[in-house]
Structures are given as C-alpha cells and as structure tokens.
Amino acid sequence: MTATISPTGKRPYHHGDLRKALQTAASELIRQRGAEAVSLREISQVAGVSHAAAYRHYADKQALLADLAEAGFHELAQLNRSSIEACTAGPLAQLMASGRAYVRFGARQPHLLQLMFGGAISDWQSHPALVQAGAALAQALTDLIVAGQACGEMRAGDPADLTLTAWSLVHGLALLVIGKRIPGAVGDEEALIDQIAQRCVALLAQGLGTPAGVAALA
Predict the structure, then answer these.
(1) Considering the entire predicted model, what is its pTM?
(2) What are phi and psi of 183, to 5 degrees?
C-alpha cells in the first residue's frame, strides 16, 4: 500500500532527478485524490522542489499528466508483449492472455488507468508522444487479431471492429473491478480478479474465434 503523503511534506531533491521526482510525487497524489484535485504547485511541494523548478520540465500540470499517461501506455504495452510471448499457443490464446494482463494492470494501478483513458488530459493532440503511445497499444492488439485471422483462428471481419470489441470488453471489465461493481465478487485479491478476467476473456474468445480456433483452446 502506498503511504499517504502530506501536501506540505518535503523530499530530498537530488540534482538530475527533478523529472522523476515530479512524476513520482504526481503519481502518488493522483492515487490519493485523483488528477483533478492536485496542482503543479502541490506536486512540486511533495517532490521537495520549488514551483519554479517544475517549469524546467513541464509547462503546466497537463504536460506532467501527459507524461505520466504516456509512461502508463508504455508499461501496459510491455506487459502486453510479455503476456503474449509467454503464451506458446496461437493468437486466440494470446488474445486471452493479453486481456487478463490488461485487467491485472488496471486493478494494480487504477489511478493510472483512469488517467490514461479519462478526461483529466483535456487535449491529447497537444501531446504527440502520448497519442503515439496510445496508438501503438491499439495497433499491437490489431496485429494480434490480424495474425489470428491469417491462421484461421479468428473470425473474418474488419480488424478495427474486432479490436474495438476486444478492447472494450477488457477495459470495461477493468473499470468494473476498480469500482468494485461486480456482483458477488468479494475482496480485491489478484487471484479472484484473474478468475473473473479468465471467464470473461474466454467468452470473448468464443465470440471472436472460429470453431477451429475455439477448439484449439480446449
């Protein structure tokens, strides 16, 4: 559990670590109260630097939030790659593994998932690196679906539509887990969350898979 930080608390600032110190302070404050409730001045205080020093790296709070969200997309993309590489079966099974990993990511870092996909960053187009990171994550899912279609494991259709369907299911499930809105689910243990995710992505695989692809999962 992350320790609560006092808004007036100071941390040692080491030259050269300013950007990381601001990111860490922002992440912890956002975890506590949400992105909308914190200011760049408060983030600077918690990081142990002056408000003016923060402007060496970030023009405003939006720029810092965009940096955090971009890092979140890269982290999720790496988790996605790892889950696919660890699965020795075909693309349909890899899609299921990827979906479970997505839900675990959201459960572990709800504040980050909400920052990445919520409305706290008002103008994404002002942050090209963030746009690119988000697009890369979506493209990785599309590539997996295209590979599944090519080998006959996934149904025919517009890969963009299938990508949106798969993404919508796991993202919506992650939000339900975060909000503790799943009837009958008690506790937030990772094993329970993974069981719920497994059942849901199995149904997703049945919907997106061909008979041969689904049979290969058995």
Answers:
(1) 0.88
(2) -60, 135
